[in-house]
């Protein structure tokens, strides 16, 4: 991650592709689940070159199992703390939050369709990490000389990720913030394992923990 060099002249088209990728993912289409992967990959190639993307996706630095498990647990803890804070301070009504659309659809469909949807969603989740990397890593290239450069870059990427979900959560701000802030450990996994794969794996596991029960029950 530290060796990445951003191609400044390609930042604007890369950002446009990220926006297209998000719109494509929420558009009703047979292949919308491929949108995040396709546009996320191309945006990173524009920003960092093919070798840069290849470097991001290299095998994780060992040991990584314990690191990933700790970061996965931290993600759930952050979400739990946010829910507790909202409840204690009566910021808004938790019960009014829109349910994750994938979970709602799974409860109303057949097992075979659900398994297909989970497969497609899993691919889309991996692409989401690429989209967030397309925001976080260019920012980090500018801020890494500062003491809190990584923390700020990660936070910016997380907030952007949260607001990528405004359509899914019917423009409710708090669910989007929860989704965004609780993914901070996912991006941290990139740095801890020196590979975007780290974030992909715990993001996928985190979502499957929620999706699979709705799919199988």
Pick out the low-confidence regions.
none
* DSSP helix fraction: over 70%
Return the average pLDDT rounded to an integer.
Answer: 92
Which value, in Å, is the CA radius of gyration?
17 Å
Shape descriptor reads globular
Q: In whole angstroms, how far apart are the ends?
A: 41 Å
Structural class: mainly alpha
Q: Determine the oligomeric state from the structure.
A: single chain
Number of helices: 9
β-strand number: 0
Largest sheet features: none
Strand content range: under 5%
The run of helices and strands is HHHHHHHHH
Structure in words:
This protein has helices at residues 11-26, 35-56, 65-88, 101-107, 111-143, 149-163, 173-181, 184-193, 196-216. It has 217 residues and is mostly helical. Helix 1 (11-26) crosses helix 2, helix 3 packs across helix 9 and helix 4 runs parallel beside helix 9. The longest helix has 33 residues, at 111-143.
Which labels suit this protein?
217 residues; mainly alpha; 9 helices
Short account of what is shown:
This protein has 217 residues and is mainly alpha-helical. 72% of the residues lie in helices and 0% in strands. Helix 3 (65-88) crosses helix 9 and helix 6 (149-163) packs across helix 7.
Write the layout of secondary structure elements.
Elements: H1 11-26, H2 35-56, H3 65-88, H4 101-107, H5 111-143, H6 149-163, H7 173-181, H8 184-193, H9 196-216
Helix pairs in contact: 1-2, 1-5, 2-5, 3-8, 3-9, 4-9, 5-6, 5-9, 6-7, 8-9
